[in-house]
Amino acid sequence: MGVGSLTYLSFDDARPVAHAYGREPNIALKGCTHTLVDVRRELLVFWPDDTVGYLSSLAQAQPEPQGLGFAFQYEVDGNTLTLADSEGRTAVFNKVAEVPAPERCELLEATSSRPLSLPVNRAIGSNLLSDGSQLWVVGEDGKAYPIDPATGSVGAGQTLTGSFRHAVTMQGGDFWAHCRCGHNEEIRRVSLGGAVADTINTDADLGNKINIRAGSWDGSRLWLWGRNYDSDRRELLLVNSDAEPDVLEDVLVFDTWTLRQFTHHDGKLWGLFHFAGWQLAELDPAAGRVTKSYVLPALEMGGDYLGIASLDGKLYLLARLDQDYAIYTFQP
Questions:
Q1: Quick one: which H or E segment has residue 5?
Q2: Is the peptide bond prior to 48 cis by the omega test (within 30 degrees of 0)?
Q3: Are 199 and 161 in contact (CB under 8 A)?
Q4: Which of 106-120, 154-168, 244-258 has the lowest mean pLDDT?
């Protein structure tokens, strides 16, 4: 159903709709979705939204469930619902009065949105960035573009660097960026103009090689997240990057494929996740879990959220809508 480990199913009385509730098992991120549902030939059949080819058939001829993967034999016995698939595997549900509040997902509406006219595409894998006074986006041309968060106006691009242009966070006026190449174990602190102030190789310098995909500067330490191929898990590295040589202070397991970018906001880590839609969630790094989460509004035209930054007590998200960009403001 796209909600991880399924915990609850609920059915509408007035509509042919089922609601599924689950958890991303590694990090306890909640997932919620809904699907069309009907009974056909003694089968309980679910049509998730991505099986659009079957949706119109509900109002027309009797649809055939073959190949769906969501067709189950079912049996209701008192307060128990048993589903069985074609291989004989079963799932048993016990009836409850309602889905508990902690299992439900909460939608977080944007407080504002502004179109963003970037002259070039954002560099793939780059985060939305904050230097404490304005926002930045790094383009695929290797230039950094300042953004006025109040108006969404984009300033002139300033040369940053060549291949190390995939920026994940800022430290003051500098950009921490990787090359998005190979196993991507190296990140550099780059100033406007291209000067390299520091280089961290997670293998050679820290002895804990990860494929860097996201990062955040918390005001005193650098956090890096990515896949450790040796342990086959995703890890958070806490690094004292101001020390020379750089010091690895902690390795924390945050093992999920669903995290895209993260930032520090009001003393906490907040991440952008793609799981059961797009979500914004507060992280507990020590526990390797999320502590609270919010579903983000669906974007039109198949758009995606791309980055997250904190500025003046607000969280800003960069999104792409077809060929255009936009900035959304949230206050969880």
A1: strand 5-11
A2: no
A3: no
A4: 154-168
